[in-house]
C-alpha cells in the first residue's frame, strides 16, 4: 500500500512540527553538559541569568526579558541547594529588572559563606550591576559594561523628578509631581542604603577601599548620567570597584547556546573561525605571470 500526496503532506507537517521540539531538546542537553563541565572545572555551583528576546511557541513572537520574581525564586532555590562551603559562579547577561527580585537575589548572595564570583560577558545593567556588587569578585570581558542603579519611577528617573523641584517654584508644581518627587526621594535613599550594605559587606573580600564607598554610591545611584549609560571596566576600576578582566572560553561557549531570536534575515553575519588577514591564493590562468598574494588592509 503506497502513500498518496495527501499522506506525504501530513507526514511532512508532522515532522516539521516535531523538529523545533527536537532542536530544543538537543540544545538543552548541550547546555546541561556544558554547565556540568564548567562546574567540575571550577568546583562551584554555576548559575546562569541570561535575558534575551526569545521566541514563544511556533509563532516566533519576540518578548523582552528582565529580572522577575520567578527568576529570584529559582536562584534562591539554587543557592539553598548549594552547601555553604561551595563557591557560587553567577553568569550575568541582563538589562536589569524588578528591584524586589534583584534585592532578594543580592541578599542571598552576600549571605552565602563561600566565594561568589559574577561573570559579565557582555552587559549587566541596572539590577544586574547590583547583583555584581553583591559578589566577592567581578570578572568581565574587556568590552563588557555595567550600568547605573538609580531608581526609575514609571518612565522617569527619580533624580529627574526631583530636579523639577529645584527648577520651578513649588507653587507652580502640580500635586501629582510633588507626590512623585516624595516617592523619588525615598526610592533613592532606599537604593543608596542597600548599595552601601552590599559594598560594606564585601570589603574584606573585594578589597573595596572604605573611602571609595560613598563616591561609588554617588556615581551609581544619583542619576548623574542616564540609566542606560554604559560603565566600562576602565570607569568601574577608576570608581574603585574590583574588576578582573578576562573570561574563560567556556562562558562564551555557553552564551552561544542562548541565541537571540532571528528575524527574517540575520543582522550580523561572519565566518565563525579565527580571523586570517591573508587572502586565498587563486589559480592563475595560463599566459599570466605569477603575482605575490596581497594582504588585506
Q: How would you describe the overall organization of this protein?
A:
Helix 1 (5-42) packs antiparallel against helix 10 (249-256). The chain has 10 helices and 11 strands. The protein has helices spanning 5-42, 69-80, 99-111, 127-133, 158-167, 175-201, 203-206, 213-221, 233-239, 249-256, and strands at residues 45-50, 54-56, 61-63, 88-93, 116-120, 123-124, 137-140, 145-146, 152-153, 156-157, 243-245. Strand 9 and strand 10 form a beta hairpin. The longest helix is centred in the N-terminal third of the chain and has 38 residues, at 5-42. The strands form 4 sheets. It has a 5-stranded parallel β-sheet with strand order 1-4-5-7-11, with helices on both faces. With 297 residues, it is an alpha/beta fold. Helix content is 45%, strand content 13%. InterPro entries: ClpP/crotonase-like_dom_sf, Pept_S49_ser-pept_pro.
Write the layout of secondary structure elements.
Blueprint: H1 5-42, E1 45-50, E2 54-56, E3 61-63, H2 69-80, E4 88-93, H3 99-111, E5 116-120, E6 123-124, H4 127-133, E7 137-140, E8 145-146, E9 152-153, E10 156-157, H5 158-167, H6 175-201, H7 203-206, H8 213-221, H9 233-239, E11 243-245, H10 249-256
Parallel strand pairs: 1-4, 4-5, 5-7, 6-8, 7-11
Antiparallel strand pairs: 2-3, 9-10
Helix pairs in contact: 1-10, 2-3, 3-4, 5-6, 6-8
